[in-house]
Design brief:
about 150 residues; alpha/beta; D-tyrosyl-trna(Tyr) Deacylase, Chain: A; two-stranded antiparallel ribbon; 8 strands; about 20% helix; globular
Length: about 150
């Protein structure tokens, strides 16, 4: 399971001209799911995201988590995080989990993140053509992969 975290001052997701999720200060989380992912990946990644200290303290150092700053969480499914670009110029997505596997894992991830971070999690719409708007704060963008824990 892969997550691309972006520290934002605001972010929103729109589907068919309707906003499905939006936050002010917090984290926009682009989430990729592969066939090999399971509950252990969800638990580890949610714990990592909720506690990652990437928000500035009074001295301007990254010492606060999204929970410390009472920040929002916006999760957007993004199968392209597992794109393979080794051959040719058209990316392949064979490592991305198909909907029968990825949808339940995505829903479980959102539920677990809400429980772990003690706050509601805003979302996009799984599998939809989404427009994501954000103001990256810093910029701060962090790549986290549950298969690369060490």
């Amino acid at each position: 399971m892969r997550a691309l975290l972006q520290r934002v001052t605001s972010a929103s997701v729109t589907v068919n001209d309707k906003v499905t999720g939006q936050i002010e200060q917090g984290l926009l989380i682009l989430l990729g799911i592969e066939e090999a992912d399971g509950e252990e990946d969800i638990d580890w990644l949610c714990n990592k995201i909720a506690n990652m200290r990437i928000f500035s303290d009074e001295d301007g150092k990254m010492n606060h988590s999204v929970m410390d700053v009472d920040g929002g969480l916006l999760v957007v499914s993004q199968f392209t995080l597992f794109a393979s670009t080794k051959k040719g110029n058209r990316p392949g997505f064979t490592r991305s989990a198909k909907p029968p596997i990825s949808i339940p894992l995505y829903e479980q991830f959102v539920k677990k993140l809400s429980f772990t971070a003690l706050r509601q999690v805003e979302t996009g719409e799984f599998g939809a053509d989404m427009q994501v708007a954000l103001v990256n704060d810093g910029p701060v963008t962090i790549w986290v992969d549950s298969k690369q824990k060490e």
